[in-house]
Amino acid sequence: MLILEPCECYPSDFSNRWRTTHRNGPQQIHSFSKLKANHGLSSFSRSPGKSPSNGRVRLAIYKQSPMLFEIEAGYIFLSVTYTAIQACLGLSRNLCHILGLCFEPLNTVTWTSDRTVIRANNGGTWSRSLFESKLFEQALKPTEVIPYYYRALHEHSDEDVTITTIVTSNRFEALARLVDQYRGPVSAAVHISSSNLTRRATLLASLHDIYSSSPLFTRWVDIHLVTDVHDRQFNMWRNVARLYARTEWVIMLDVDFAVCTDVSGRFKRALEAGGNVARLAKSGRAAFVIPAFEYVVQEDGKDWKTFPTNKQTLVELVNAGKITMFHQSWAPGHNSTDYGQYYSAQPGEVYRVTTYQKSYEPYVIMRHDGPPWCDERFVGYGGNKAACLFSIYLSGIDFYVLSDDFLIHQSHEYAEETRKNERKINKHIYGDFRKELCIEQIAQSLQADTLHKEDKYNLRMECMRTPGVPEIVLQHLLKSEHKEGGPFN
């Protein structure tokens, strides 16, 4: 249950512990220190004798910035446009204003398990179904999304790196392995088919068993439930997992990979050190590639506990012919990473990907807010992840390889016949998608007179070699920029 609404203001009243109940999930207890640590609520104090269980606690929120905040207090509160927050019970609004403790919010949102109402001051309202249809407008309908079906208790910091991943009903064990191995924030979109209610109930019970099987889940993992009759809406699920992540940085990762090094800790330390990584991160135009590998013999890649945990051992196994780049059978997916340069790179080195091509689909650390979202028209295998990375690249973000870190794929069987058929369809969709995105981005850049700017370099270069983009028009645009003293002089 998610609620945002104005309140009758009152000086802060908190019990020492707060309880939230998730629909179809267990109750969870949160300390006030967690609320303060997560959201910078240093001005709050606890008044003995007052308890939120005696009444519905509300939040008064000052309008200040467009940043996202979440507060849990009896219910879960979500604000998109307000920052300064005070808890309150049932005092009158007039007294609140006299004391100068709160102002009237512009809008209120109530998001419950069965509906969403967005209520503006002018009285306009929107239903939850309408709200979600716009939020995931390209997804197949009907689709129900239940964010934070299970919610982690850990006090995340903005500098933590959240793995955002997608999980089908046959991959619960893979999620458990990832959680056990990573031991950091995970935002997982879990798909449960609604086509068979009995089967759905069984899978939800299995999900509950997995989530309650280890304290690592309740410490680290947010589960967002996606339920519908549509299988393999991978990009829509990726967007769900990323949207509800709670840190500034995320890794878009498949659930069957092992993060073999302390990539999160090293990345945080690099940001704090203020060197090259920090400079690139601050620019907003960098995504950081974690090179991916797989075992040559599938049987060797089933137990992540036997995987190498440092680059020296990894390179030794590569030289011994036991490990190779991920999906050696499909080199375009990852070869732009330039594995030769990775092997020879010095500790701490970060190098730029200079040979991007349309099939490149690395696993990257990127900002939670800023990069484009995955295009949701893709259903099934083939082209979906590459489309995400293509959008990111065209937006002006470059890829930089972290030379000390790596991922290894945990071997499992693939449904090859299904993958083969869906790839044929998505190959055509991906071609159309690239053409459309190029034309759309070029048109917008021309209208804004920004096509000549440095951050449009990827757009110019990649679209110039994208088949199907009207060649004469594109050549005219580029020649025009050249003649007028644009970026090609």
UniProtKB/TrEMBL annotation:
Name recorded for this polypeptide: Glycosyltransferase family 49 protein
InterPro entries the UniProt entry points to: Xyl/GlcA_transferase
Compartmental location: Membrane
PANTHER family: GLYCOSYLTRANSFERASE-LIKE PROTEIN LARGE, GLYCOSYLTRANSFERASE-RELATED
Pfam (any one): Glyco_transf_49
Record membrane topology: Single-pass type II membrane protein
Keyword Ribosomal protein (UniProt): no
Record carries keyword Phosphoprotein: no
Alphabetically ordered keywords of this record: Glycoprotein, Membrane, Signal-anchor, Transmembrane, Transmembrane helix
Main location: membrane
Top-level taxon in the UniProt lineage: Eukaryota
Single GO term (MF): xylosyltransferase activity
Lineage summary: Eukaryota, Fungi, Dikarya, Basidiomycota, Agaricomycotina
One GO CC annotation: membrane
